[in-house]
Specification:
Elements: E1 19-28, E2 31-39, E3 47-52, H1 59-66, H2 69-75, E4 100-107, E5 113-121, E6 127-131, E7 135-136, H3 147-165
Antiparallel strand pairs: 1-2, 1-4, 2-3, 4-5, 5-6, 5-7
Helix pairs in contact: 1-3
Length: about 200
């Protein structure tokens, strides 16, 4: 794992870990785009950033987002709950979730709620974009019975997104162009054109 940086923005002194508050997360083509604020100390004014990471996201972040898929399906009324609906943390998602993906989320003010953003792959390869209604974590009259589980699962995704902002990403090494020479006994024969 790569070393996590204490401060994301410029001029980062190595001794202090900044306070990051994430507003929006989006993962597209294995790259994180994030809107967040950062404070050097609790008393310092927050600085706003919008950042797209050049590195591919770590599998821990994509796993954390996949754990939000059951909530996306219930909140967007795409599926109904079944006895095997909620997988364990170590389990893969059940097959009924295969067409669904959580691509990001948007946090409410003071991180008191969330809107999940995702997709459903339709037959024929087309994609249906999904956005859930805003789900407050503080609403005592909430109609969603899994608000506590959603908040806990989202906390893991927020932790992984912050780690990505601090440098946690997939180790990537491009192979040298001439590292593996072609076999010398290979013979290329052109194919004749079709008549």
């Amino acid at each position: 794992m790569s070393q996590l940086l204490p401060i994301v923005g410029p001029d980062s002194p190595e001794a202090i870990t900044s306070i990051i508050t994430i507003q929006k997360v989006k993962v597209k083509d294995q790259h994180l785009t994030c809107e967040f604020t950062e404070q050097r100390t609790q008393e310092a004014p927050p600085r706003a950033f919008a950042l797209t990471c050049a590195e591919q996201v770590h599998p821990d972040l994509t796993h954390a987002l996949s754990r939000l898929v059951p909530h996306l399906c219930l909140l967007a009324e795409q599926l109904t709950e079944t006895p095997d609906f909620w997988p364990d943390e170590s389990e893969e998602l059940p097959a009924l979730f295969e067409p669904f993906t959580v691509t990001g989320f948007s946090m409410g003010r003071s991180q008191s709620g969330v809107t999940l953003i995702g997709q459903r792959e339709l037959t024929g390869g087309r994609v249906l974009n999904l956005t859930t209604p805003y789900q407050s974590f503080d609403d005592e009259q909430a109609s969603y019975p899994y608000t506590g589980l959603l908040e806990t699962t989202l906390a893991t995704a927020l932790t992984e997104a912050e780690a990505a902002l601090r440098g946690k990403c997939t180790d990537y090494r491009q192979l040298d162009l001439f590292e593996h020479p072609a076999p010398t006994n290979a013979l290329l024969v052109p194919t004749p054109p079709r008549a």
